[in-house]
UniProtKB/TrEMBL annotation:
This is non-specific serine/threonine protein kinase. Its EC number is 2.7.11.1. It catalyses: L-threonyl-[protein] + ATP = O-phospho-L-threonyl-[protein] + ADP + H(+); L-seryl-[protein] + ATP = O-phospho-L-seryl-[protein] + ADP + H(+). It is an enzyme of class 2 (transferase). Residues 1-23 are annotated as: Disordered. Gene3D superfamilies: Transferase(Phosphotransferase) domain 1 (1.10.510.10). One of its GO terms (molecular function) is protein serine/threonine kinase activity. InterPro entries: Kinase-like_dom_sf (IPR011009), Tyr_kinase_AS (IPR008266). It comes from the Eukaryota.
Amino acid sequence: MINPQDRFWSDSQGYYGPSESPATKTYSDVWDWDQLRMVKVKGTAKIFPPDGDVELSILAPLADYLSPEVRAITVDDDGLLREVSTDPEEDDTMFIAYPPFSLCGSLSDCRTVQYSNLQELDRLGPFVDLTSLPPHPNIVPFDRAVLEEESRVIGFTTKYIPGGTLANPNVPFPFEWLQQLTQLVDFLNLDYGIIHQDIAPRNLLIDPSTHKIILFDFDRVAFGEKNLQDGRDDVSSVVFTLYKLIANDTSFSGIPHWERNIYMVQSISEWTSHRELDSEVSKFRKFLDEWVATRRSDVDGDMKRYLNAPNRLTLLDLPTAPEYTVPFEMGTRDGKPVWRTGRRSRNTAMNLGQYCFRWERSPQSRLLNNAESNVK
């Protein structure tokens, strides 16, 4: 089941006036990873200050009870529900033109499965994606490409690993898993020129059959200089991950990655353990510090090794879905309509008659209740 803390994500926040004025009307688009839908939360700046993420806590207790047709809710200055809207114009969900399988040459030899033939067993976490990598005992393997009824590629399946993730603080953490993680990072960064950019306890599975940790969720991956994000290098991520695993301290998670540096945790004199370990904390820290020193001894040299990795993958350009070449009207200029091509909202695509795959589904709580009723 998706961790309640990870279920909602605020996509954007807008103000119809100065954000400093409590009376300014505002809105936030909130994505619900459980139901795979977007709900616009509206109110005033009094209850929605900039960067407050208040909209998440307001939507959370309401989400499971909203009709699938609801596109927006409005709350008063006390955070109480005042109004719901089913107006499609309130829906800011972006349109995704999934490419036909026939255009995806790199997947021509892959096994496929129809989306309609998949049976949901559980919802493990939000935003689970995978990119193609060489086989490795600590990387979750690719299984099949998922096709919808028009044979468009909408996703991928991977091998199911039943051991859960390291986000569970009750899972013991042996020293060998730290060794596996640092070896994996060196393998990705220095052998294949890949930076994961999102190493965290929630993205580390435990394979009970091999007693190894498995890295997944490669949606932020960087190849060479493409997609590199400041503060998301894997060495820094390993440092913050180990500290979070040992100390169960989430205080650094709320700091933007571009404002973090490893000295914040390395300078903490004592890491008080709140997790079962098979060795003293000092052993973990000594190994980590030595590994970081090796990787950071020559920052320019480390980056050069990454950029000139001997087994760098050759990436094919993503096929352009033909739907994006269809022009759509986007406002007017000098009294004349302005036409654009490229990305568009789902509502715009539907008005043009373009096919839109709909991911929306019932909340998992409702599915669990139905399952319990059937058992009784």
